[in-house]
Specification:
Layout: E1 9-10, E2 15-18, H1 22-57, H2 63-95, E3 98-100, E4 105-107, E5 128-129, H3 142-147, E6 155-157, E7 163-165
Antiparallel strand pairs: 1-4, 2-3, 4-5, 6-7
Helix pairs in contact: 1-2
Length: about 170
């Protein structure tokens, strides 16, 4: 979805495009569900470990069973960390579906239309033209240069024969 149109002024942070979010919303939901499963497994393994530790103090479980409970708890802890990383990755990917303006400027022509395929690092969506600063190369005689001073208005002419002051 494209929000501003060609030639429209945009400000820094203005929303320019929204890429189809549905696959990324689904991936985020899946990552959150997997994290919830990992957290539930961790809670259970923490209970099992606490039980195994208290039973090992009275020699009611073997060292092997205690070691297995410790290993299972450590594995579940790592699984929770991995799940959090997957959720963060899914959130980042979802965030990449909204394209905002990095500058104040004017929106150029969109290179894709609604429904077009966008691929990472190869699809140019548009060009933004910065209008706050412009750099112009021109030729001027030394005699004319000596008449110019900082902050003073100067008259200039364009190739088309138009004249202006600025």
């Amino acid at each position: 979805k494209q929000l501003p149109i060609e030639g429209e002024r945009v400000k820094i942070g203005a929303l320019l495009f929204v890429i189809d979010q549905q696959p990324y919303i689904a991936a985020l939901a899946q990552a959150k569900a997997a994290l919830a499963q990992s957290e539930a497994a961790l809670v259970q393994s923490q209970r099992d470990l606490a039980r195994a530790k208290s039973l090992s103090e009275i020699d009611a479980v073997s060292q092997q069973e205690l070691d297995a409970a410790v290993a299972k708890n450590d594995a579940n802890l790592a699984s929770v960390d991995a799940g959090r990383a997957l959720v963060r990755t899914a959130q980042l990917n979802l965030g990449y579906t909204t394209i905002t303006s990095p500058i104040n400027g004017v929106m150029g022509r969109a290179q894709l239309r609604l429904g077009g395929l966008v691929t990472a690092n190869s699809t140019v969506l548009t060009t933004l033209y910065e209008t706050d600063r412009m750099y112009v190369n021109f030729s001027i005689s030394e005699q004319r240069l000596l008449t110019l001073h900082d902050g003073r208005a100067a008259e200039y002419g364009l190739v088309a024969g138009l004249r202006s002051a600025g």
